[in-house]
Write a sequence for this structure.
């Protein structure tokens, strides 16, 4: 019985390695899982627990210490990172939409420290990002992502060719929709603020001596917050539409 267990040890270790590679790639890039505000110990613990749970789904007759094993591990990391990157683009589109709104309401200079970006970002960008993160968790998006990763071991098991050039091209093509998604998020508020700016342009023509900078700035900010409050109703719908496109692309990448 001991000899049988020792003979199965390389297969068990291989399954665990493939699961760790795919889960690590996902957790390095995917939103929520890669949040730097979470302790590194907690993130490592999440990777270990998910890998132990998903390891039985990743059997492969490949020696992890061989050249094929190293190539297979690199492929697993690539799969997880590609899936996480697609979902991250959705969050970045929403954050960029919030930045466009901030620029429209003269809050482009209002910046806060962003743990996600590792620097500073627009305050409305952070506000939108926080909202969609809560929406993502409330809609069980994290559980759906883990389920998709588990299904990927059946549709794209270790040892088979990973994401090809066409799949990577599809990811790059989806990244091109970042600006379209940002406009979809910011359009309601930006349209309202555009009407306000057109009104200021008419006032400047009617009363050239008026100091519009002193008068227009507080009015623009005040009306901007009202437009922001009214436009938040459309944020869940825009975020869900972007998510649907992302889930469809991720399923195509994984062949599920």
């Amino acid at each position: 019985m001991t000899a049988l267990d020792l003979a199965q040890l390389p297969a068990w270790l291989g399954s665990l390695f493939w699961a760790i590679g795919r889960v690590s790639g996902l957790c390095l890039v995917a939103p929520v899982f890669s949040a730097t505000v979470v302790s590194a110990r907690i993130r490592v613990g999440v990777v270990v627990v998910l890998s132990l749970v998903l390891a039985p789904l990743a059997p492969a007759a490949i020696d992890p210490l061989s050249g094929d094993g190293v190539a297979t591990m690199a492929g697993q990391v690539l799969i997880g990172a590609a899936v996480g990157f697609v979902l991250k683009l959705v969050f970045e589109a929403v954050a960029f939409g919030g930045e466009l709104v901030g620029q429209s309401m003269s809050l482009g200079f209002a910046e806060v420290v962003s743990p996600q970006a590792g620097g500073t970002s627009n305050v409305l960008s952070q506000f939108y990002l926080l909202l969609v993160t809560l929406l993502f968790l409330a809609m069980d998006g994290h559980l759906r992502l883990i389920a998709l990763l588990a299904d990927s071991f059946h549709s794209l098991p270790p040892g088979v060719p990973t994401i090809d050039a066409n799949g990577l091209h599809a990811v790059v093509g989806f990244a091109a929709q970042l600006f379209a998604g940002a406009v979809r998020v910011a359009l309601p508020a930006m349209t309202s603020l555009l009407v306000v700016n057109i009104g200021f342009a008419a006032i400047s023509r009617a009363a050239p001596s008026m100091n519009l900078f002193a008068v227009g700035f507080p009015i623009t900010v005040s009306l901007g917050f009202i437009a922001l409050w009214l436009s938040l109703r459309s944020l869940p719908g825009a975020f869900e539409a972007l998510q649907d496109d992302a889930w469809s692309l991720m399923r195509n990448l994984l062949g599920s």
